[in-house]
Structures are given as C-alpha cells and as structure tokens.
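Good morning C.,

I know you're traveling, so I'll keep this short. The sequence:
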Amino acid sequence: MSITEASRFQLRTAIGQILDEEAADTLMELLPPVGWADVATKTDLQHLQLTIEIAIEKRIHEQTKWLITTMIAMNTVMLAASVALSKLI
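The tokens, ready to paste straight into the viewer:
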C-alpha cells in the first residue's frame, strides 16, 4: 500500500482529534513524506559510495595512461628535434 497525501491528511485529522493540534503537527513532521521503502539505507549509501569510487578510480587510471603516453610522445619529439638541430649545427 502506497502512502498518498489523502491518507496522510486522514491520519493527521485522526491524530488531531486525539492529541492537540501542535502535537499532531509535530508528529506529522517527523514522518517521512514517502514510504520507508523509498528512504535510502546505510547499505544503499555504501553501495553508491563504492560505485562512485570505482568510477573515479577508472577515470583516473584512464587519464594517467593518456598523460604518460602523451608525455612519452612529446619527449620523443623533443629528442628527435634536438638530434636534428645538433646535426645541422
């Protein structure tokens, strides 16, 4: 059974008849606006954290490989240019 605004209002009205209005309002503010199945648990958050960490590590690894490859290529070009210039002189 899903909780609707109508059922929340009905609950608020019933609580208001038993308790005073301020206490009923306080109690309703403490209840989540959705069912408890929709609230994230610690396990959900840990799984999400692990997923994000894996994605970040993968991207860092890819970026590091690209950076090292680019640096090697640039150093090779600079070495070739230095050798070519030294032969001209």
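Safe travels,
E.
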